[in-house]
Design a protein that fits this description.
Layout: H1 8-17, H2 25-30, H3 33-45, H4 48-57, H5 67-80, H6 84-104, H7 106-112, H8 116-120, H9 132-148, H10 152-186, H11 192-201, H12 206-209, H13 219-231, H14 235-248, H15 253-265, H16 269-279, E1 292-301, E2 308-316, E3 319-327, E4 340-343, E5 346-349, E6 351-355, H17 356-392, H18 394-406, E7 421-430, E8 432-440, E9 443-451, E10 456-464, E11 467-471
Parallel strand pairs: 1-10
Antiparallel strand pairs: 1-7, 2-3, 4-5, 4-8, 6-7, 8-9, 10-11
Helix pairs in contact: 1-17, 1-18, 3-4, 5-6, 6-9, 7-10, 9-10, 10-13, 10-17, 13-14, 14-15, 15-16, 17-18
């Protein structure tokens, strides 16, 4: 039986439809950022009806191959809209998906990023698998959901999952880089020129990437877990977690104070000496005063950076091909604002513990080797298809070129309702109902919390432009808005 070669018509059809069966068709052809901006605007509006509509409008997207991205977005919007049950359910489905991916093993995941489907149309045709820093934040956000429900045990479990995710993401990244290197050598592709041009184009994005060791390790995870250990009077474990947080983000004085406090409580003289040498004698680590309770304020400010797109020339076989790549335009970037916390004679100003902008930039830098290899292989395949089509029919060749341009899209998907940064503040307040004033540029709120002696009260304040959402299991019934 004679085997007929695949016709350019068939190849063209596959090119046009490659994304349709695997992912959200709208994303494949238009990108994701615009839709993500709609979610951000709904949160910033402070209009519950508008936010509810945005949540309902993505129900269908939550059934697509990109469902994990949309479940994360919907889970975040639901939590900000007071639907803790719905938010917890969305986060759990996403978490189960990532758990199943971990069970597949890092090598299988790495190989899948270079298979035929991934090469066919554009990176948006690859079903969304999340970025390492997002997966860790998923568990952090779920832990906060449980803390709002006063479920400390489930919060601990989520933070343990976050720790596992950090280790897995680190291993997965190493395997993907190795697979990308193997593919480039196998196809005799030199990335030197592309890497040099890429470094020049994205140099401005290094604004904050140097502030994080990598995109996988999140100091907020360790700090929050430390507070739960301290709450249960397991001071040895609390100290371990606080020290891990300080290794990642040593600038945060609230974590340093917590580390000193637990080091004194468990008699860790060596750690007391080390902390004193680093932070000075001003670091007292004062124990919780009798008759008072600890108030931990977690402040989520703004929205994480969205990805932009640029075109990078690449020479192959004497031909100039254009690679379409994602990057972060940080030219208008500004540092996150802080939150002033005051109540019952105590005052504090939040300090950053997790810079998600920097983590997003670092995550993309870590992904560039795999993105470059896939994009180059894709452009070579498209060029060959166009050449073959042109030989058979000039009009078919033109159609192939049009199809190539139409499907040239960089992967701009990332969880856009995540905050720009996570900040914390701690203070100790007298027992009973206490008024807290929370003030940031453009917004001020006053809430009442029930402070229990020797216990920790968690207050989560999330600001989206002029809108601030406050969540806590310990909000007093008579909480009042600011006048």
């Amino acid at each position: 039986m004679k085997i007929h070669p695949v016709s350019p018509v068939m190849l063209l059809t596959c090119l046009l439809l490659a994304g349709c069966e695997t992912t959200n068709l709208r994303n494949t052809f238009t990108g994701y950022t615009r839709q993500g901006r709609d979610f951000q605007n709904a949160l910033s509006s402070g209009d519950a009806a508008r936010l509810s509509k945005a949540i309902a409008d993505i129900d269908r997207d939550c059934q697509s191959a990109d469902r994990i991205l949309y479940l994360q977005e919907r889970g975040r919007m639901r939590s900000m809209n007071g639907d803790a049950v719905g938010s917890t359910a969305d986060y759990q489905i996403a978490s189960d998906f990532f758990e199943s991916k971990r069970m597949e093993g890092t090598l299988t995941v790495a190989n899948g990023l270079f298979n035929a489907a991934a090469i066919a149309s554009n990176d948006l045709a690859i079903p969304y698998d999340g970025h390492g820093f997002e997966k860790v934040m998923l568990h952090n956000e779920q832990a906060m959901n449980y803390l709002v429900a006063n479920n400390y045990d489930f919060a601990r479990i989520e933070l343990n999952h976050a720790d596992v995710e950090q280790a897995f993401s680190l291993e997965k990244h190493a395997k993907i880089v190795a697979e990308a290197d193997r593919k480039s050598r196998e196809q005799q592709i030199s990335l030197d020129a592309a890497n040099a041009s890429l470094a020049e184009k994205t140099s401005q994005a290094a604004f904050g990437a140097g502030a994080v060791k990598n995109s996988f390790q999140n100091a907020f995870t360790f700090y929050l877990r430390g507070t739960l250990y301290e709450e249960s009077r397991d001071y040895d474990r609390a100290l371990i977690e606080y020290k891990k947080a300080l290794e990642i983000y040593p600038e945060n004085r609230f974590v340093a104070e917590a580390a000193m406090r637990t080091a004194l409580l468990c008699g860790a003289s060596r750690d007391v000496e080390t902390l004193t040498n680093i932070y000075g004698k001003a670091l007292k680590g004062t124990p919780v005063p009798q008759g008072s309770g600890r108030v931990v304020v977690v402040y989520e400010q703004g929205f994480v950076l969205a990805r932009s797109t640029f075109r990078l020339p690449f020479i192959w076989n004497g031909q100039i091909l254009e690679l379409v790549l994602p990057y972060y335009d940080t030219s208008a970037w500004r540092p996150a604002d802080g939150l002033d916390v005051a109540g019952a004679g105590a005052a504090a100003h939040t300090q950053t513990l997790c810079n998600l902008d920097a983590m997003a930039v670092r995550a993309l830098q870590e992904e560039y080797s795999e993105i470059l290899v896939r994009q180059i292989l894709r452009m070579i395949a498209k060029y060959k298809m166009q050449e073959k089509a042109e030989e058979q029919n000039p009009l078919l060749g033109l159609a192939a070129k049009v199809a190539s341009v139409a499907t040239d899209r960089a992967d701009d998907r990332n969880w856009l309702t995540l905050p720009q940064s996570v900040q914390i503040a701690e203070c100790f307040l007298p027992t009973g109902r206490q008024e807290l004033s929370l003030t940031a540029p453009g917004v001020s709120k006053s809430v009442a919390v029930n402070v229990i002696p020797g216990k920790t009260v968690y207050v989560f304040a999330s600001q989206f432009g002029p809108n601030m959402v406050i969540r806590s299991a310990d909000l007093a019934p008579a909480a009042l808005p600011a006048q």
